Amino acid sequence: MMKIFNKIINTPDKKKLFSNFVSLAVLQAANYILPLVTFPYLVRVLGVEKFGLLAFATATVTYFQILTDYGFNLSATRDISIHRENKEKVQEIFSSVMVIKFGLLILSFFLLTILILSFDKFRKDWEVFVLSFGMVVGQVLFPVWFFQGMEKMKYITILNIFAKLLFTIAIFVFVKEQADYWKVPLLNSLGFIMAGVLALWIVSRDYKISFIFPSIKAVKHQLIEGWHIFISTVGINMYKQNSIFVLGIFTDDTVVGYFSIAKKIMDLVNSLNGVVSQSIYPYTMMKMSSKYIYGFLKKVGMIIALYTSIIGLILLVFSDAITKLLAGNVYYQTLLSIKLLAFVPLFIGINVPAVHILLGNKKDALFTRAVILGGLLDLLLNFLIVPFFSYIGSCTSVILTEIAVTSILYKYALEVIHYDYKEKETI
């Protein structure tokens, strides 16, 4: 068995790829296990209404996380990966990205303040939204893109598990009754911020990278590099967050709570797809010109399709038991949402090869176009359907959007592959 395993990872690149996969797999295992510990507890202690409020607040600040990320988790990762042996260049990239992210953080807090002052929906629970904003601060501090570019996923794993473990323990210690609901975003934010501070310390200690004042040219370069991916990230997260955000606008916190339980389960499954995508991303960017890379991505897509189909069947058949286990009761609204969304992770997961083909071939604009179309479609569907069909409308918009995005991404990816093969034949 060990001989077969050693043959599979018989090169330094494959060993590094496997190491990164294991690191992210461990992280995602923690992402599965720890929320499964706190999630049922919070639903029972806080009740569906307060759980829905927290979900609505999280969906709101996620838009600010998208803004401050600015696509750097892909664009800056690519830059760091290419220049990792050049310390001066890495320091320039690091400083430029951090300057932009802090500028966007200030802008985000300003926009949140306007939102709270302008709408009663946000003003009546303003403390929850402000405390939730600490997650944005923590995310700005944590240079995930740096560690991904350096292919040192273990740091991402260790620090994230530390933050989540701290949050999990704190939930059981400090959240004892419904009136403690405001402590949940506070504790979550503190975990994010602590992990971010430790991450910056590791960057300084292990890589001897310190902040320098970057040139305007360097900052401008990062803004241009990240632009297409930022716009595409806006599109992706629009149709990931719109469902809860729009549902929160047109319904009450209780309905949002019912739907959020089902959405939380889907997010846990989708995080497994994230492991695969993040693990192979630096590898595929470096090897995109290799003749076997399309075959490699095809195999990845088949593996994803297999396990997401199995998970989908499990969710469909055992939705009653899953709802009872996680929520304490079999809420009809949650049960139906789980059944409707059971195979959504399949459509999201099989997008991974297409996304890597487009980004690896520098077709960022096509990737952007696909997800922006998806985001706009989702927004349109949510505003057209949710006011009349509530959470059923949310589920419908998610399903139709994911099918549409998958179709568009593969249309573009197949065009890129066809052109690439044609060009090689000509040469």
From TrEMBL:
<keyword id="KW-1003">Cell membrane</keyword>
<feature type="transmembrane region" description="Helical">
    <location>
        <begin position="21"/>
        <end position="39"/>
    </location>
</feature>
<keyword id="KW-1133">Transmembrane helix</keyword>
<feature type="transmembrane region" description="Helical">
    <location>
        <begin position="129"/>
        <end position="148"/>
    </location>
</feature>
<feature type="transmembrane region" description="Helical">
    <location>
        <begin position="338"/>
        <end position="359"/>
    </location>
</feature>
<keyword id="KW-0812">Transmembrane</keyword>
<feature type="transmembrane region" description="Helical">
    <location>
        <begin position="391"/>
        <end position="414"/>
    </location>
</feature>
<feature type="transmembrane region" description="Helical">
    <location>
        <begin position="93"/>
        <end position="117"/>
    </location>
</feature>
<feature type="transmembrane region" description="Helical">
    <location>
        <begin position="181"/>
        <end position="203"/>
    </location>
</feature>
<feature type="transmembrane region" description="Helical">
    <location>
        <begin position="51"/>
        <end position="72"/>
    </location>
</feature>
<protein>
    <submittedName>
        <fullName>Polysaccharide biosynthesis protein</fullName>
    </submittedName>
</protein>
<dbReference type="InterPro" id="IPR050833">
    <property type="entry name" value="Poly_Biosynth_Transport"/>
</dbReference>
<dbReference type="Pfam" id="PF01943">
    <property type="entry name" value="Polysacc_synt"/>
</dbReference>
<feature type="transmembrane region" description="Helical">
    <location>
        <begin position="296"/>
        <end position="318"/>
    </location>
</feature>
<dbReference type="GO" id="GO:0005886">
    <property type="term" value="C:plasma membrane"/>
</dbReference>
<keyword id="KW-0472">Membrane</keyword>
<dbReference type="InterPro" id="IPR002797">
    <property type="entry name" value="Polysacc_synth"/>
</dbReference>
<feature type="transmembrane region" description="Helical">
    <location>
        <begin position="155"/>
        <end position="175"/>
    </location>
</feature>
<feature type="transmembrane region" description="Helical">
    <location>
        <begin position="366"/>
        <end position="385"/>
    </location>
</feature>
